[in-house]
Amino acid sequence: MCDFKINIFLLGLFSLLCTFEINGQIDAAIDIENLSKLIEVSKETFTDEIMVIYKNEVVSHWKNEDCDTIFFNTASMVKSWTGLVVGILIDKGIIASEDDLACKYIPEWEEGCKNKITIKNLLTMTSGINRRSGAQSIMAADDTNLYALKIKPDTMPNIRFNYSNESVQLLGIIIEKVSGKSANDCFDELLFGPLEMNASILGKDPVGNNVVFGGAKTSIADAAKIGLLMANKGQYKNKQLVSSDWIQKSITPSQNAPYYGYLWWLDNNSNDKNYAATGDFGQMTIVFPELELIYLRQQSCNKDISGNMTWMGPNFLTLVASVVKKSDR
Questions:
Q1: 71-104 b/e with 16+ CB inside 10 Å = b?
Q2: Is residue 264 over pLDDT 90?
Q3: Contact yes or no for 122/104 (Cβ under 8 A)
């Protein structure tokens, strides 16, 4: 018997195997030894589940059998999903452009109106809003929407990159305003439903607002469909759900941060370029476009802050990329 589980599926069709029984082209391209190393590293770094997809087929699905959590919390990984929903609304003409002032859609955000903050500023974390921490954080607020609408920027927009949950929650308010629906219902209509992400739902704050900067619940199979959507330039099952133009904008370095696009983290310095949706404790979807490789990781059972993503870095990314043999790069 093999000492790890391989779960092969094509866009949601599962079968549990211990050997590679995929088409010969994909089988020959996967480095089994490096895949085994990746799984061993996963065991050593608090990981509860990983999935590796190559050329739209899952070639490995490993799960920690000691962790019985079915769903996992996306943490900030959902920020990237929020960016996609904004893009779909722009594609449909419901939002005219990311260059629009946020004030056009949420005039009650007086500080945003005063400082002429655009939707693009919110997407690229250049609105001038610093991330608050502790009791001053939006995460400590009972009403996250009210908190966001009262927030005052720390600088003028377009000066520097400042990662903040608050910026993304403001995008959530815009989504609700233009759609006339709760953020979760809008996500269901535009993203979760079309992608058949039946296990995904946004979180709520204590007063019932949907939270779009973190805390959504999903499954690794659902999250994989976001990776597939990105890797296939906005298509899923031959349907264009989000424009290829928006996908390209999402993964293009912003003016103030070469490592960030429209709510996606970018790595253009590695030999194998990649972009990622990531969250606390290493919830992640990483796409290596040139390798046609997607890697997903979730951590649910171990929340030891001392081990929070200390393993993440160039060596880890190199290991993930090495799952595809060099001859196939």
A1: bbbbbbbbbbbbbbbbbbbbbeeebeebeebbbb
A2: yes
A3: no
Query: What are the pLDDT digits (tens) for 108-145?
Result: 999 999 999 999 999 999 999 998 888 889 999 999 99
Please give the distance of CA 166 from its chain centroid, rounded to a whole number: 17
Percent composition of the chain: helix, strand, coil (DSSP 3-state, to 5): 35, 20, 45
Nearest to 105 by CA among 121, 123, 119: 119
Question: What is the reported pLDDT for 20?
Answer: 39
Mean pLDDT of the chain: 90
Lowest mean pLDDT among 176-185, 202-211, 318-327: 318-327
In sequence order, the β-bridge partners of residue 35 are none
Are 78 and 214 in the same domain?
Answer: yes
What is the C-alpha to C-alpha distance for residues 41 and 37, in angstroms, rounded to an integer?
6
Q: What is the Cα–Cα distance from 61 to 84, expressed in whole angstroms?
A: 26
Residues 82 and 47 in one domain: no
**Cα dist. 97→34, 104, 209 in Å?**
44, 11, 25
pTM summary value: 0.91
User: How many domains, in total, are found in the chain?
Assistant: 2
